[in-house]
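ok so i was messing around last nite and threw this chain in just to see what happens. nothing serious, just curious
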Amino acid sequence: MQIPSTENHTIILNETSIYQVYSFESSVAVSKEDISKFATLLQDENPLHHDEAYAAASRFGGIIASGPHIMSLFTSMVASHFSKLCPMVGTHFEFDFLLPIMSEDNLTMRWTILTLDPFSKPNKIPVRLNGLVESSRGITIKAVGDILLFPSNSPARI
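result:
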């Protein structure tokens, strides 16, 4: 791990520069089958996730994804991304659902670092993230998340 500069708070993890406004994104298509399968795994019997006729007659006009489904995709994206750079854990996430996620939506999920504080705690770096999920209809979810990065104890490279 490189000791970060006090001016720009940049750290190097596994040859990747991490800094305020660093972002990463992923795209995912949400199928009707995926929605029903995930809801079934959670024992969520809400017909909005399973019954096409029921969902079509609702104010949504079709099958919608459950909140835990999209939250799981979105938070696991953080874990997958940062765990390739160093050990990490998520400590807190909040979500605002602005629009329903419909079956067959193509989503763009993006996380951006708002803050990172490489000096506050020995051997762990608190990071605050801002997240957006967008479909062709606009922003569907806004989120914030807090994670801790645990860089290796290798000598600093300056």
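not much to say yet. The longest strand covers residues 105-116.
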